[in-house]
């Protein structure tokens, strides 16, 4: 069999290990006593429009059309609804002919990178980064190059970025709001990134594409703006998923939006279609395509995540821990009081706090705390964090 | 951008071209006067259990669990239901730990071939074959080798098969009932195939896997048996999809079943999990996983397809055309009275009969007629076939 695939299938992810430990522990001491902050699974219900729309769609008279194949790039009505939403909110150039419906964020990224990269190319991203980026880049025949972020803000360190850009750089991949840091790139960061990539593209004689992975776009707190990539940099592609905004992670529905102003945009869009075909994606799930078109612009009640963030961030800071303040997503990336994050996680386990070491996200000395959990659980977990802090005399 | 992906995206399939022509023509002369036999889109409604189950699932109190991530290999309850169905009907060894839920048949095949193959391997299949097999094999780094079938029966020509098996053969891919011929492999064919592959595996010193692509398993007419591959050959993998049996092609739901008796089955299953991960499949759509578990063993009313086949086959034979009798699927593969199938299709177009040349399926001198259409349309199309036959003085 294929050895790369066997390795990928047999090496269980650290997150999954911790999650399984949590389930076993819950049987021993009761689920209410285990504080599992390991998974990025939305805890807030889908908005009412999800159930209402499903009920309406299911009653449609033409059941074969409802569940039938759509065109490979997605149903035209659906792509029009999404393009109109993007035009109204972010980018007046959005056009249904540059939208490709996908089976969620992982598909959006694998397809986009496969469309862009040739064997030996490099995809640059910024640590901390979502653990699967490495896998997606390698599927596209490319190598993931991670650049350390500014440790105080987790915004981009441009000196470090410039040092890695080169003749093999095909794309730069950003994720804002970020998993695992929760940090949102501000306008200044995005504008400077655009400028840097323009110069580098000229210097190295080929276009460096900017790919924006943004399943957390709507999960921002306190009116923070998430700058829209295509408005700052022309050779850009937005990868979106409804998993978090509509709390539908299992339904696998998202899209790719190729900036129509990009030189060769039409050809690039065709390469996206080709990559979808090559990877075995025939079309995105039909019923959920029709659903997202009717729920466009709606989100789950994200105020719950904001409250969770505030409660947890305040308490952790009071205990003496330190985190960069997350403006979005539903993660806190906390500095560990000892350099070995895995050792810290083991100590946390004694108090039944399940956290994920940052090592897998390309950052040593941190843990990820996924606060997409019930506010009750957070309240119950606070004393455990306090005890953990005391162990380190914080 | 990636040139392979661009080519795959920009080269429109012949089937799609014909379908688009049909839509334009329908605007000119009315849809009822265009006889479009180009697409393999089920025309029969999903069975009642689909709507009933969806309505029940949507009312489940825990909406976040309903639409949440399942484990990567699929929900345990779902895999148990499917394993139990396979045990009860086909293979008493079936086990949920060897079932991997997929985003439909194309995903099942791309994942399976990626798990099996290394760069430079060969995947052997039998012409006529589904056009996308070549793409799926190439994504896995392999080369598709097509073997001509016995022209009288479209069963396997074993001399020709033996001539291509070699040290690079990693897998043999079968599709019964077949798209586009409608032919079902009988027990004799499958038993001899197993024997041939056992000998070849021994001769070349490595296992040759048998992959069975069977989305049409339940679409058979007149009590014809579809032998279950794992009962005949141990190193075997079944790729299944609910697209045709439940008329849900747009929802993208199927599974891979690795024969647990295969040497190294556990490792192979892990490679399947790894390939799913590498190709960007996080999990199969959650709602439809739960749906198929509750509709297991149910099918659409396939008697409609049988009537269509009988009407069309009788009429075409009466007109003087010749086809191998299809026992399953919803396709007729008809010999063209002139050697150039494309020229024949052009002539057919004059009578607004839209057929697909066999060249794309690896067989010259044939056309595919997809009879998954309304019986009314077939009745209206009969005179057109008659006129076409007269042109050739049949």
Order of helices and strands of chain A: HHEHHHEHEHEHEHEEEHHHEEHEEEH
DSSP strand content of chain A? 5-15%
Query: Can you tell me the CATH class of the largest domain in chain A?
Result: Alpha Beta
Radius of gyration of chain A: 21 Å
Overall pLDDT confidence of chain A: 96
**First-last Cα distance of chain A:** 51 Å
- Contiguous runs where pLDDT drops below 50 for at least 5 residues of chain A: none
Biggest sheet record of chain A: 7 strands, mixed
CATH superfamily of the largest domain in chain A: Type I PLP-dependent aspartate aminotransferase-like (Major domain)
With strands numbered from the N-terminus, the spatial order across the biggest sheet of chain A is: 2-8-7-6-5-3-4
Q: Provide the number of structural domains of chain A.
A: 2
Write structural notes for this entry:
- The structure is a homodimer of 394-residue chains.
- With 394 residues, chain A is α/β, with parallel strands linked by helices.
- Chain A folds into two domains: 3-47 and 300-391, Aspartate Aminotransferase, domain 1; 62-294, Aspartate Aminotransferase, domain 2, CATH 3.40.640.
- Chain A has 14 helices and 13 strands.
- In chain A, the strands form three sheets. Chain A has a seven-stranded mixed sheet with strand order 2-8-7-6-5-3-4, with helices on both faces.
- In chain A, helix 7 (133-139) links the parallel strand 3 and strand 4 (143-148).
- The relative contact order of chain A is 0.17.
- The mean pLDDT of chain A is 96.
- At the A-B interface, helix 1, helix 3, helix 6, helix 7 and helix 10 of A face helix 1, helix 3, helix 6, helix 7 and helix 10 of B.
